[in-house]
TrEMBL record, chain A:
It holds the Pfam family oligo_HPY. GO terms for molecular function: ATP binding; ATP hydrolysis activity. Keywords: ATP-binding, Cell membrane, Membrane, Nucleotide-binding, Transport. The keyword Disulfide bond does not apply. This is Stage 0 sporulation protein KD. SMART domains: AAA. It is a peripheral membrane protein. GO terms for cellular component: plasma membrane. It is found in: Cell inner membrane. Residues 17-263 form the ABC transporter domain. InterPro entries: AAA+_ATPase, ABC_Ni/Peptide_Import, ABC_transporter-like_ATP-bd, ABC_transporter-like_CS, Oligopep_ABC_C, P-loop_NTPase. It comes from Thalassovita gelatinovora. GO terms for biological process: peptide transport; transmembrane transport.
TrEMBL record, chain B:
Keywords: Cell membrane, Ion transport, Membrane, Nickel, Nickel transport, Transmembrane, Transmembrane helix, Transport. PROSITE patterns: ABC_TM1. One of its GO terms (molecular function) is dipeptide transmembrane transporter activity. This is Glutathione transport system permease protein GsiC. It comes from Thalassovita gelatinovora (Thalassobius gelatinovorus). InterPro entries: BPD_transp_1_N (IPR045621), MetI-like (IPR000515), MetI-like_sf (IPR035906), Opp2B (IPR050045). The chain crosses the membrane at residues 12-30, 100-124, 136-162, 286-308. It is found in: Cell membrane. GO terms for cellular component: plasma membrane.
UniProtKB/TrEMBL annotation, chain C:
Its EC number is 3.6.3.-. GO terms for molecular function: ATP binding; ATP hydrolysis activity. GO terms for biological process: peptide transport; transmembrane transport. The gene is gsiA_8. Residues 11-255 form the ABC transporter domain. This is Glutathione import ATP-binding protein GsiA. CDD domains: ABC_NikE_OppD_transporters. PROSITE patterns: ABC_TRANSPORTER_1 (PS00211), ABC_TRANSPORTER_2 (PS50893).
Length: 328, 315, 336
């Protein structure tokens, strides 16, 4: 599963997806939630790019934004030289599920409960191709086979509630890949699944990424999952990417104080506990309604200085990025 | 499936028995004596009274009367009207087509108004359209429907002279005249039903639009008209159809006020007549019939659930 | 905690069965059962922390509720502090329940949103100075005394879990049942809460029944481990012994499926086929045989009994002698 070394880091001109200064804000009755505050990254063809962070850091909002499903207020998203951020509703709908597809955390509720698996798969195929009903049905059955579901004909006639969680996630993957998209966005695809099923689904996504030549944006809070599946990792905090690096480099040498704290607080199943208290970061993330000036992590950071009250600089080099005054 | 229906029918037995006791005792606890009515005003001949009482079994202890009545009903004999001597079942059969026609027409009116109105209100939640639809719906719920019926008569019959203010013509005899007679009572009942249904459709649509499968449908590139018109609507319709079915069952019992205003010869009108005439046997028959119809309709609604919602397994 | 084994057990569960009727026939008699917990036995000694692990549907949460006697067990016995929980009358049961408190996964649903948190904590206290003592408990779990009169929505998820812990500590329990108590929390907050629980365990001499699907957390917190699959115990033993050399094929697969947060020492995953079967229709014999790489005809015949599998260890597998044993990870083991 560790293919990090085989993949070149993206040059700007080869990236399948580029995101520049993405800003997303949800306007509520009283306040605005500043969910994403300037996110920039490139996705290379066939790579798995993981965005990790804790709840509320904006990672899922980034995922939904890539499909134009959030109120984007600034920045630019370019997919295969098409500017998604400038598209109208109808045009964007033709891209979704076709060039860029998505799978979600809850396979239990992500499928329509009153439509058969077949209907939902065939719909996804026919929305973006000129296939007739018959051809689309055959293609749907073939897709179920490719995600490891036997007895595809029977599966097509079944309703979502007749399938287990793992099977439903396979259906979601089949649906997402049915039009052979350039990019698959996977938002916590295994969080709701049991650990033995999680291992199957992660292996499946990785295998299909190879077969279909799809690049994957993997959104997760699970550090173990990213360590095993991602080529590159972005760590998000309070709506921004604070550090980005190839997987091995990030784990070997985490630079941002938040990344260090995050990696240290993950309990290890493969290690004998040393009996010491686990390293922790005190406090919790700031409210996304009212972000502080400067570095949003400074209240919890042991390295914070007066400088941190202004926006930290971005330092780029050796294929990695860090946003912190420590690396000025 | 068959097992489910069997069990439901089995469960109905005690319900219907309790119902029959209630129907029987209510009528007998109400003040007023049918023999007085039969003998006519001013007549007080005790011999005639005794003969009449014996003839209709009204001299028996009330428990005996109940079991006699129940036994007859179980053999399909609802008895005869105390007043017209006609078999009650014939009277009901005579009136039922009128009620059935009105119920169908009202349900269609209600569906045609409420489903689009509910969808629009949900889609433009918080907008003027939503406020407008909900305001009208609230008005429709709070205003008694006989008042609306009278307004219709005033406007369409008295002022414009477009529609007949009362009466009923069997649909298959003369569809055009029948429709003209049908419009106002159907509007009266249909709008009242639509008021509740619109609120239900709106609430269900809003509930369903927040579900995660909607996000999936959008993510696969379905245009909004498919997301709403197919994915959301299909789910929102499950509870809606249930309520429509139950309300339709209610309409089949006869709409007492509306049928009276429009002199519509349905079950409701029959019930009113029976009450005025203290026709015990007829009241019992009508009420029991109405209850049976409602029970049957709710069973049908439950079974239809099986077809609407694949998650429901009837066992 | 080996020395504590000399004492009498604090909690003993013997042959516990918990079934729920999920369907009934024409006459309303139960016709289909959900086998939530099937013949589970376990022992917890004072001061010990026993981990219960397994995937969804394995019955671990039902087991917790059955121990608290929130259900009438279908069969079996729960003995707590020498008293039979099942036969305790309601007043005694209330007293017994003061001694075993539960902390649940969802710190949002567990607190009454309309009551100040201090009042929720003070409910569990007896005697004078309840407010002072409730404030002291708040401080003990890492909050401020002034938080006494605040409402649950004013706190973050981690803080709410601290409040739930303070509330559970108020009646001075002997046993704390933690049912996925840190599962809904972010890792940085999860570490804080685990540290807090470890401190409290030492300070108050608490015993823990620690239910979790997170094996890494269990390894860091528990002395002993019980692995469940489809309502049954498949393996039990001292935590380190089980992790370093799992005996049951399911335990091996479960542990090896956990992704390792270290690209330098990636895990070696044994991929299991399929999903956990439905507890409505568990397979005959060994429930795991449908996914087991070692399954043989014998596995379908009868439910395997718990048999010794090393020092204070046992496992329920008919082919225990044929299962390849040994550590799951080699290079990373023991290094830090």
């Amino acid at each position: 599963m560790n293919t990090a070394a085989e993949i070149e880091l993206p040059e700007n001109d080869t990236a399948v997806l580029t995101v520049r200064d993405l800003v997303v804000r949800y306007d509520m009755d009283e306040a605005s939630i500043h969910a994403v505050n300037g996110v920039t990254f490139d996705l290379a063809p066939r790579e798995t790019y993981a965005i990790v962070g804790e709840s509320g850091c904006g990672k899922s909002t980034v995922a939904l934004s890539l499909l134009g499903l959030t109120p984007i207020v600034g920045g630019e998203i370019v997919l295969d030289s098409a500017r998604l951020t400038e598209m109208g509703r109808a045009e964007m709908a033709r891209v979704r599920g076709h060039k860029i597809a998505m799978i979600f955390q809850e396979p239990m509720t992500s499928l329509n409960p009153v439509l058969t698996v077949g209907y939902q798969l065939i719909e996804a195929i026919r929305l973006h191709t000129s296939m007739g009903k018959r051809a689309a049905r055959e293609h749907a059955a073939k897709m179920l086979g490719r995600v490891g579901m036997s007895d595809a004909e029977r599966r097509l006639r079944q309703y979502p509630h007749e399938l287990s969680g793992g099977m439903r996630q396979r259906v979601m993957i089949a649906m997402a890949l049915s039009c052979n998209p350039a990019v698959l966005v996977a938002d916590e695809p295994t969080t709701a699944l049991d650990v033995t099923v999680q291992a199957q689904i992660l292996a499946l996504i990785d295998q299909l990424r190879e077969e279909f030549g799809t690049a994957v944006v993997l959104i997760t809070h699970d550090i173990g999952v990213v360590a095993e599946t991602a080529n590159r990792i972005a760590v998000m905090y309070a709506g921004r990417i604070v550090e980005e690096a190839p997987t091995a480099a990030l784990f070997a040498d985490p630079r941002h104080p938040y990344t260090r704290g995050l990696l240290a607080s993950v309990p290890r199943v493969d290690r004998v506990p040393d009996g010491q208290p686990m390293p922790t970061m005190e406090g919790s993330a700031p409210s996304m309604r009212q972000l502080p000036e400067g570095c949003p992590f400074r209240a919890r950071c042991s390295h914070s200085t007066e400088k941190c009250e202004t926006d930290p600089p971005v330092r780029v080099g050796e294929g990695r990025m860090v946003r912190c005054w420590l690396y000025e | 499936m068959l097992k489910f229906i069997l069990r439901r029918l089995l469960q109905l037995v005690p319900v219907l028995l309790i119902l029959s006791v209630l129907v029987f005792s209510l009528v007998h606890l109400v003040p007023g004596d049918p023999v007085d009515v039969l003998m006519g005003e001013g007549h007080t001949d005790p011999v005639v009274e005794a003969v009449l009482r014996a003839k209709y079994g009204l001299d028996q202890p009330i428990v005996v009367q109940y079991f006699t009545w129940l036994g007859n009903i179980l053999t399909g004999d609802f008895g005869s009207s105390l007043y017209t001597k006609e078999p009650i079942l014939d009277m009901i059969a005579d009136r039922f087509p009128a009620t059935l026609l009105l119920a169908f027409a009202s349900a269609i009116v209600a569906i045609v108004i409420s489903i689009p109105a509910g969808i629009v209100a949900a889609l433009y939640r918080g907008s003027l359209l939503d406020f407008g639809a909900m305001g009208i719906a609230l008005f429709g719920i709070s205003v008694p429907n006989f008042w609306f019926g009278i307004l219709l008569i005033l406007f369409f019959s008295q002022m414009l002279g477009l529609l007949p203010s009362m009466g009923y013509v069997p649909f298959f005899e003369d569809p055009w005249t029948a429709t003209k007679h049908l419009i106002m009572p159907a509007l009266t009942l249909g709008t009242a039903m639509a008021a509740n249904l619109t609120r239900l459709v709106r609430a269900e649509m809003i509930e369903q639009m927040s579900q995660e499968y909607v996000r999936t449908a959008r993510a696969k590139g379905a245009p909004e008209r498919i997301v709403i018109g197919l994915h959301v609507l299909k789910n929102a319709m499950i509870p809606t159809v249930t309520i429509i079915g139950l309300q339709f069952g209610g309409l089949l019992e006869g709409a007492v006020l509306t049928e009276t205003i429009f002199a519509w010869p349905g079950i409701g009108k029959l019930a009113v007549t029976a009450v005025y005439e203290r026709d015990y046997a007829l009241i019992q028959g009508v009420v029991l019939f109405a209850a049976l119809v409602y029970v049957a309709v709710s069973l049908l609604v439950d079974i239809s659930y099986r077809f609407l919602d694949p998650r429901v397994k009837l066992n | 905690m080996n020395e504590s084994n000399l004492n009498a057990p604090l909690l003993e569960v013997e042959g516990l069965v918990q079934r729920f009727a999920v369907a009934s026939d024409v006459l309303g008699r139960p016709s289909q059962w959900l086998h939530a917990v099937e013949d589970v036995s376990l022992t917890l000694y004072p001061g010990e922390s026993l981990g219960i692990v397994g995937e969804s549907g394995c019955g671990k949460s039902t087991l917790a509720r059955a121990i608290l006697h929130l259900y009438e067990p279908s069969a079996g016995r729960v003995t707590f502090m020498g008293r039979d929980v099942g036969s305790a009358r309601s007043a005694d049961l209330r007293a017994l329940r003061r001694d075993m408190q539960i902390v649940l996964q969802d710190p949002f649903g567990a607190l009454n949103p309309r009551r100040i948190v201090g009042a929720s904590i003070a409910d569990g206290l007896k005697g004078p100075d309840r407010r002072k003592r409730a404030e002291a408990l708040l401080e003990r779990v890492g909050l401020k005394a002034a938080d006494y009169s605040r409402y649950p929505h004013e706190f973050s998820g981690g803080q709410r879990q601290r409040i739930c812990i303070a509330r559970a500590l108020a009646p001075e329990p002997k046993l704390l049942i933690a049912d996925e108590a840190v599962s809904a929390l972010d890792v940085s907050v999860q570490a804080q809460i685990l540290n807090l629980l470890s401190e409290l365990r030492a300070d108050f001499g608490l015993s823990f029944l620690f239910i979790s699907h997170n094996l890494a957390v269990v390894r860091s917190f528990c002395d002993r481990l019980t692995v469940m699959y489809l309502g049954r115990v498949v393996e039990t033993g001292p935590t380190e012994a089980v992790f370093s050399d799992p005996a049951h094929p399911y335990t091996r697969a479960l542990i090896s499926a956990v992704p390792i947060p270290d690209p330098a020492h990636p895990g070696q995953h044994t991929l299991l086929e399929g999903d956990v079967p439905s507890p409505l229709t568990p397979p005959s014999g060994c429930a795991f045989r449908t996914r087991c790489p070692h399954a043989a005809p014998i596995c379908a015949q009868s439910v395997p009994a718990m048999t010794p599998a090393g020092d204070r260890r046992s496992a329920a597998c008919a082919r225990l002698d044929d299962v390849m044993r040994g550590p799951i990870w080699d290079s990373a083991e023991g290094t830090k």
